[in-house]
Design a protein that fits this description.
mainly alpha; globular
């Protein structure tokens, strides 16, 4: 099965995914996914998407988290 970025966005926007933070609206996750899509360029299988997501998560922890929480205007 091929998972295009459009397919993944549709899945995320469906509202059927369980999230660890249920208080946030689905649109927040879709917005974050749209911003992150360039990082996932070339992913077409579920395993590739998961591997790249794990890599992005590690990068955020290592590079962004030490800077502290920011606010978006």
């Amino acid at each position: 099965m091929v998972l295009s970025s459009e397919s993944v966005l549709d899945i995320a926007a469906s509202g059927y995914l369980e999230t660890w933070e249920l208080a946030r609206p689905t649109s927040d996750f879709v917005s974050a996914l749209r911003r992150a899509l360039p990082f996932f360029h070339g992913c077409v299988t579920g395993d590739q998407w998961k591997e790249r997501a794990d890599h992005l998560h590690r990068l955020v922890i290592a590079e962004v988290e030490p800077l502290g929480a920011g606010t978006s205007a």
